[in-house]
Amino acid sequence: MRGLTSGAATAIALSAAAAVAWAQHGHGGAGGHTEGHQVAQACASEFEKVVGDGRGFGLAFAADQNGYPGPMHVLELRDLLDAEARLRRLFADRAADEAAVRAAVADVERARSEVRLVHLLTHLKTRDLLTEAQRRTYHEARWATLAPAR
After folding, report:
1. Are the C-beta atoms of residues 124 and 42 closer than 8 Å to each other?
2. Tens digits of per-residue pLDDT, 101-124?
3. CA Rg, the chain, in Å?
4. CA-CA distance, 94 to 25, in Å (whole number)?
5. Which of 3, 76, 93, 130 is deepest in the core (most CB within 10 A)?
6. pTM for the complete prediction?
């Protein structure tokens, strides 16, 4: 997915999530559960790859789409990836119980929240560094098919 806009990455992620939900609720026909799980695994793998590369995977879509451009962020994402790995290991090691899963999910969401906040705040700072003309040029180049930034 290298080279995709954050909007395209978000659309892919949402499509994958919808496909998983559709398949998991019996709409996938014979083998739908297996296909749904394969789609979920592919989405999770892509998320790890994108985040591991320091890209946002749509986390700042709201800012970027509305004229708050951000550079390719160099974020410390190891905590998020480690938390995701710990959650998966609980199940892989057959060590999952309610308390452990609740704690692991809370760790994942805390890390995800911190990454998103840093990402969005960087967009705020980057916007302030540009002139109105530069922001307009950026927005037109990045979001030509959408309404202009305000």
Report:
1. no
2. 999 999 999 988 988 888 888 889
3. 18
4. 25
5. 130
6. 0.51
